[in-house]
Amino acid sequence: VTLRRPPLLLYHSVADAVDPRFAEWAVTPELFAAHMELLAGEGYCALTVREFVEHTFKQREPLPPRSVVITFDDGFADFHSLAWPVLRRNSLTATVFVATGFVGRTSSWLADLGEGDRPMLSWPQIEEVASAGIELGAHGHRHLQLDTVPESRAGWDIARSKRALEAAVGTVSSFAFPHGYYTSRLRRQVARAGFSSACAVKDALSSTREDRFALARVVVRGSTDEDAFARLLRGEHVSAAPRAGPLRRGAWRAVRRAGGEPIATRIRELL
Ligand SMILES: [Zn+2]
Q1: What H or E segment, with its residue span, contains residue 49?
Q2: Integer Cα distance of 212 and 146 in angstroms
């Protein structure tokens, strides 16, 4: 059986006017519509992360020939106002990973990028999109760099985000590591908390041989125009900022733990 490797796309915000320091993390509503129309026009079938994991890792069934998984990290309110209507219009579904401690508040962790006041989804909005078939996944409670905090605090944060979300929408099976950071210890903690998968950020197309607790996603950036998006779907995406290997990741983690990194180097890691 030849198992397909659908692209797992990672969006953050769909918005027009953002601070230039945040621009890579926001696609305009027009560009987002162009991306989704391209998917629909090419006959892509969207799966939630949960559906993708069930097909690929549990049932081991081949996926429809043109499958795609669309994900949104953080839980910005613009998912409800700007992204969701476009998804609906194109009969596409998605998974939204919510940092539960910020629900109904603002993105205060983004203050360094001049975007600390972005409205986040409210609980009623989360319930509304969930009841319409959007999958809600957990993204931690406080949006911490989980690999830099004590194990017990990381475990609490992971479990707390699951409980908070489940109180609103029922069973939550998918997790996404805040900032994309994970370790083998964190993968085990996420599994122990009862999730069936975890998404990372690897700027790579997903492989079915990979660990379902470290699913690779490609970041769709503000600069990903229609041509770049089409290339990305074909797997021709070349990462602008390749993720470091294990050794360099460890060194980088030590720097982050010490709190010594300058803002400029932190920007691409901030979400
Ligand atoms: Zn995030």
Answers
A1: helix 49-53
A2: 18
Q: Give dist(CA 195, CA 173) in Å, integer.
A: 5
Block means of pLDDT (10 residues each) for the chain, 271 residues, are 71 95 96 98 96 88 89 98 98 98 97 96 98 98 95 97 98 96 94 97 69 92 95 72 51 62 41 54
Reduce the secondary structure of 229-261 to three states and give it as a string: HHHHHCCCCCCCCCCCCHHHHHHHHHHHHCCCC
Going from the Cα of 62 to the center of ligand 1, the distance in angstroms, rounded, reads 30
Residues flanking ion ligand 1, Cβ below 5 Å = 73-74, 178, 271
Give the predicted TM-score (pTM) of the model: 0.88
Cα of 135 to ligand 1 centre, how many Å?
Answer: 16
65 vs 155: CA distance, rounded Å: 38
